Amino acid sequence: MIGALLNSKDIVVCVGPGGVGKTTTAAALAALAARQGRRTLVSTIDPAPRLADALGVGRLSGEPQPVSPEACRTLGVAKDGLLWAVRLDTQRAFASLVEEQVSDPEMRRRIFANGIYRQITSTLSGSQEYAATLALYDLNRQKKFDLIVLDTPPTANALEFLEAPRRIADAVSSPALQWFARPPEKMGRFSLQRLRSGGAMVIRRMGKFVGSQFLDDIGAFLVDFNQVLGGFQVRAQQIDQLLRGERVSFLLVLAPELPAIEEALYFHNRLREAGLPLGGFIANRVHPAPGLTDARALAERLAAQPGLVGWPRADIDRAADRLAGEAARAQALCQAERKELGRLAREAPGIGVTEIPLLDHDIENLAELRVIGDTLAGPAEAAGLV
Prior knowledge:
It contains 18 helices and 8 strands. About 7% of the residues have low confidence. The protein is elongated. It is an alpha/beta fold. The protein starts with a helix and ends with a helix.
């Protein structure tokens, strides 16, 4: 199912909260698509250094870089140049939009140097998510890749990524901001005096609390950035249209736990209401069944181990009891996960749930990343790949 999805889409967006293995999953999906012969780019906000090193791209930059031929061979990619990686640069994404909207080099310089602009593009809630959508739009517009796999920023919930373009556009184009920013006619000098008199009066009073530098920054920002407001609104609409397209699909990466399942179902319902395409759920780090849980059976198995021949039976029994307790807890956890994943499948009918088993260590090399890709593809599809 995942393999077919990767073959039929131009963009696959991996969404989900932080800490669920989303970046690794995105890299495995991109490698799988490249194995299928598609020229694929994996785009990530902050890849783990070991993952970047393993892919042979070192420190990722804002320009797409090809994964090394050696790494491609280990991943099972038959041809060089099919797998690429890029690190999304938040500041660069915003700067590109400003440069597109503002032709005056001096005005660009003032905007980029402005403290208010830097705050909006770096620390305002949703700025990273909006930057990711800006970068995705630009990469898709270039038409250099058959498939783009986007690893979205770690967020408290998956909906933050989808809501970010509207939230940022609303913030910079609110009626109050435009009221402040609209200068009186025949005012050509760049200063706080260019603001409407009412806005200037309010800002001056604010200066008693925040200082004169804030006055300078916000006055300059409101005047200069007024030219960019329309561009932000238009781009937000273009991004929304792009994400609603038939060639785009979302994959929600989650942990098989009750809160995550609740969020996944909420996300699924919101996507359905908005008419956006959810391609599937990927349940990461699913605990396997422990096997033996009976203390007596474990004791017999231990006693048969060559390395334990000659151990006192009482010691073996005590070790078996401890192991049985751990196995019982693992069994309960496994059953709880199976119950939640079953509920997810029932309450989101028609949306596939792909499971990735829990490994006993982080993904540190390409061979392990390929195993994750095989798991995502499924046995039948993986057998048919190089």
